[in-house]
Design a protein that fits this description.
CATH superfamily: Aldolase class I
Radius of gyration: 17 Å
Order of helices and strands: EHHEHEHEHEHEHHEHEHH
Number of helices: 11
Number of domains: 1
């Protein structure tokens, strides 16, 4: 059954804007859980622009659903993950000037490094996911380095969906969906778990949730934005309903 991982980075973004103690990301994680979230995702960035080390430690101690730690493939982040042992560590590209993650991880161009990071995480009992574009060479490289999960970057699909007037049947949108579907089939065929995420919202999520074999969607900004008006529990519950309505019956 398809699952929802809720990214709570933007709760920390709001807190850090005032350099204060509220809103608390851990409280947000509890509210997301009560709304039906299956997991919590946070990105501990190298510049610590939103989530802080203390947040991850408290989340590890206090959350009762799985924790997915997004991280760059650096020695510092590997050491933190090995100490805290989240259920999953997702390797992502990271740029200091970007507002949010702008593309998938290039595994093909750094296989040796990523293979070493995956091995070190696996040695600590941590499942490793890689955030990649919907490209077959990247999927194949993910399998070679030992990743157990591939999360397909849905940003290009989301941007096409918005640019084409939210028409899920437009050629540009159908082309992006087909790319994600083919990548998902390759992921499953190579024995890895097929996840997806980035820029998904209440209008565009269902065509992705309907793809065969997709296990988890990771969604943050849209849910936190909706929660300003309806509360976080309800925002999570609404997203979960949309996903479950669209997902293939098992």
């Amino acid at each position: 059954m398809i699952e929802l991982g809720v990214n709570i980075d933007h709760v920390a973004t709001l807190r850090q804007a005032r350099r204060t103690y509220e809103p608390d990301p851990v409280w947000a994680a509890v509210e997301a859980h009560l709304g039906g979230a299956d997991g919590i995702t946070v990105h501990l960035r190298e510049d610590r622009r939103h989530i802080q080390d203390a947040d991850v430690r408290r989340l590890r101690e206090l959350t009762h659903i799985k924790l997915n730690l997004e991280m760059a493939a650096t020695d510092e982040m590997v050491d933190i993950a090995r100490e805290l042992k989240p259920e999953m560590a997702m390797l992502v590209p990271e740029g200091r000037q970007e507002v949010t993650t702008e593309g998938g991880l290039d595994i093909v161009g750094q296989e040796s490094r990523i293979r070493d990071v995956v091995a070190r995480l696996a040695d600590a009992g941590i499942m490793t996911s890689v955030f990649i574009d919907a490209e077959i060479p990247q999927v194949e490289a993910a399998a070679r380095v030992g990743a157990r999960v591939c999360e397909i970057h849905t940003g290009p699909y989301a941007h096409a969906f918005f640019a084409r007037g939210r028409d899920a049947k437009s050629p540009a949108v159908l082309e992006e969906i087909a790319r994600i579907r083919m990548a998902g089939e390759a992921i499953i065929g190579l024995g890895m778990r097929f996840n997806a995420g980035h820029a998904l919202n209440y209008f565009n999520v269902q065509p992705i949730a309907a793809l065969p074999g997709v296990r988890e969607l990771h969604i943050g900004h849209a849910i936190i934005s909706r929660s300003v008006f309806v509360g976080l529990r309800e925002a999570v519950a609404e997203m979960k309903r949309l996903m479950r309505e669209a997902a293939p019956r098992e």
